Amino acid sequence: MRALCTLPAAALVLGALARPFTPEDLVESTRLGHPVISPDGTSVAFVQTRYSIEKKRQFSQLVVQALGNHLQIDSPAMVVDFSKDARPNPPSSASATPESEDAASKHRLEPSQPVWLSSEELGFVATDAKTHQSTVYSVHNTGKHWSKPRAVFTAPVPISSVQYNAVSNTLVFIASVYNGTTTLDETAELDVADQERDDTAQVFDELWVRHWDSFVTPKLPQIHAVQLRSHSSNTKPKHKPKNIIKDSDVDGRLEAADSFVISPNGQHVVFVAKRPGRDYAWRTTSYVYVADIDGSSASPINDNGRGASSSPVFSSDGSRIAYVQMASPTYEADRNQIHIYSVEDKTTIDVAVNWDRSPSDLLWADDNTLLAAYNEYGRNKLAKIDIASGTITSIVEEHSVGSMQHVPHSNELLISYSALDSPTDLYKVSIDDGSIKRVTQVNPQLGSSVFLSAPEDVVFEGAEGSSIHGFLLRPPNFDASQTYPLAYVIHGGPQGSFTDAWSTRWNLNIFAAAGFVTVALDFEGSTGYGQNFTDAIRNQWGGKPFESLMKSLDQLLDSHPYIDRNRLTALGASYGGYQINWINAHSTAFKALVNHDGMFSTVSTYYSTDELYFPETEFEGVPFDEQARQNYEKWSPERNVHKWKTPTLVIHSEKDYRLVVSEGLSTFTALRRQGVPARFVYFPDENHWVLKPANSLRWHREVLGWITQWTRKDTIGESQSQKFVVQGEHLN
Asked: Mean of the pLDDT values across residues 696-718?
């Protein structure tokens, strides 16, 4: 059954009440922030955001939703409502203003990071866009409504990942600080001094210089704690916040990961951090640290580990810590192995050693059982793991589980849950039997009145007899007696997967709704099919994956005669963009290609990317080693540009430091210099992903326009104006 629990199934036939899904629908859909459950387990708070194309505004709302046991979904209570002009350069008169002057204090605060201070008191963070100060506000449930926000604590710098422990009455958060400083005020003063410098130079002696979309600064994200006085209306901090990891085993130079967990008694914090060092850019090794809440010590529990660590979580009594860690110190897609550390004995055991899957998140179900989220066969699943035997028992097998947390005083979890044809919502799931109850419906407008194509599992034979799994989506009003163009979508990573999950980027239903049979496959390198399959892409970038994609395409066309062989397109991002460049030199099957943030040269990418451990693992060495250089050269698309013939849309962004913008510019130059039809779309303010709503709408306009242009039945192969319409405009 495709429908997610009580979610109305998408209409099977496009009729008067079911219209096609559009980019506008996607861009204007409501998006859920991280949910937090009240201590009594009766309510969940979260921030939801939506964008208005007409108003050009971003709306953020802090809401509270009841966690009832009935089938009816309660209407959420609106606690804080905020909007701002979302244009890159809004007029000065269009700054953030309330929609109404009523309860103005609620409308002038942009809410983020909700945190329960008690079952009747909800906190949230608002950061001033001008001063960059973050303030924790609280609101009280009076029984009839929520009170106006009241400031509890203000930090002179931005803070994130806020958590609260009622036992110790302590607020814990992450703030980026300069090494050697003792207070947040010192960091704020140094920030001002930096802004007042005469020059703008940034100087580096070691790697890395930049990461993802930002240049590295002298500041490090570190964990701070501040104790509050009480739960009364006079709640204020007792003391100034204390950096609890600055006195760690490496002179405080730890860069804490975004997530951390407070112990049940409120006396310790467990977190993941990388140690500083010359090899920072070419090693993935990170450790699980336990810090005292008073900042007296911070030390690792897995000092002998080699790979990346993640997902530490305390048992209910705080006596044990479960976490996952990889074995390889240089491979970010190695299998996560589950470990359990005894706080008292300082010993560690391994759990489910023979399980050939890579769990990403852990929770404790009870003293003898863990819960794990993991990717398998195109689904993000949830399972119970018996600690003693390693036995895996499925709880949720269909669609995709996102975040998960335990509902207090129950044997249920609150999960975010979605599918390719169902946007993300919150659900409760029974740990005992896997039964699911819906909690939210934040996008009712995408119910039965909008057609969302249900995905069909497909399996083909790939390179060396491998099994290649994926999904196929049909267009609205599908008629098997007609023929349709194909959108062949290739995922990035490459150690990733096309899962049965909703996405606001590369949403497969967008391509299906535009009239394309849409197919997305998991080739060698993909996750969820065992570690050997994931590893099979190493030093095979243009080898096995390409062979599997092309063999699968042949089988797809043979078994699905309604796909027009003369109207095939292929699209990909990141590694998928690399594969687009590779396809352009090694296949003439496609009428048009789309390359988003792809790789042009393996060699130039090595010297400009941020995470060196990635190419060093994929191509088995460094390009200045004679033997490894052969691998880089063998799989570099740049070596074959003289074979490129297929019209290609190239998209790249300035703040992409994973695959820098010159990779896209080089691709476009090679195409146009040889007279191959091409178009270059440049986003100066985006990173590896296009995230801003208006930019996303333009991205869809360009992509759908391009593949529509080259697959029109009446003018196949001719350069014509695109016919796909967005916002009522014809594209030219």
From this structure: 89
Task: Give long-range contacts, CB 8 A cutoff, 24+ apart: 226-235.
Answer: 226/153, 226/170, 226/171, 227/168, 227/169, 227/170, 227/171, 228/117, 228/152, 228/153, 228/169, 228/170, 228/171, 229/169, 230/169, 231/117, 231/118, 231/121, 231/169, 233/150, 235/117, 235/138, 235/152
Sheet (strand 456-461) strand order: 456-461, 467-473, 517-522, 484-490, 563-573, 592-596, 648-653, 678-683
**What confidence tens digit (pLDDT) does each residue in 165-202 have?**
999 999 999 999 998 899 999 999 999 999 999 999 99
d(CA 722, CA 701): 9
Q: Which one-letter amino acid corresponds to residue 455?
A: P
Alpha-carbon torsion (10, 16, 17, 19), positive or negative: positive
pTM: 0.94
Residue 551: HSE in the Cβ half-sphere, 13 Å Cα cutoff: 20
Q: What is the mean pLDDT of residues 216-227?
A: 94
Question: What whole-number distance in Å separates Cα of residue 428 and Cα of residue 44?
Answer: 11
CA distances from residue 70 to 73, 253, 418, 440, 677 in whole angstroms, order as listed: 8, 50, 21, 12, 58
Q: Known catalytic residues?
A: 574, 656, 688
Closest CA relative to residue 412, chosen from 386, 375, 438, 387:
438
Partnered with residue 81 across adjacent β-strands are 61
181 SS3 class: coil
